[in-house]
Amino acid sequence: MGRKSLKGERQKEIIKAFYKVAKKEGLENASIAKAAELIDINPSLVVHYFKNKDHLVYGLIEYILDKWLLIYKVPAEDATDPKTHLLKVIDNIFSSKWNTLFDDSVSYSCYALAFRDKTIKGKYKELLDTLRQRLQELITACNNTRVLSVKNPALTADLIFVLVDGAYYYLSLVGDKKEYQQKLEQYKKQALLLLNFS
Hints:
Blueprint: H1 7-25, H2 32-38, H3 43-49, H4 53-68, H5 76-79, H6 82-93, H7 96-100, H8 104-113, H9 118-144, H10 153-171, H11 177-194
């Protein structure tokens, strides 16, 4: 038996440390040295796995996707029925669960880099397209079982995520918890209307 490679695990550990530093100090102040210090390794080991900070940011964006995809994870008993599965995912998307998966300031800082870095732009587009694709698949499953009759599942999934993106961008500025929750409920109702759920 060969020895199991630790590369993937070590890379995840470094990305998580980089995320913690970025969350605390801002992405612009996060560095290879600070991430290495947090997990008590030599910065040269970080450079061994990630050529430079840009490559670490690329890994961070993939980490964001992994975290955001958790929104599609529902209890096994809910996953067997397409309607229940879709409604649980909509509940997850329009809940504090979605907003606690990943720090907004780090996410928006990464997103801002997409305007200057084609690789980051491509990775962010892939991230957002994956979220839409997964929602489209759930809508299509509901159409196939005649629970829903959505004419264009791809467009509907896209519109829901346009609503989500705008909602959380705006809600990140809302300090009042009651107002935040009311707005979130309003946005969720609009998403359900797009799905022809009343």
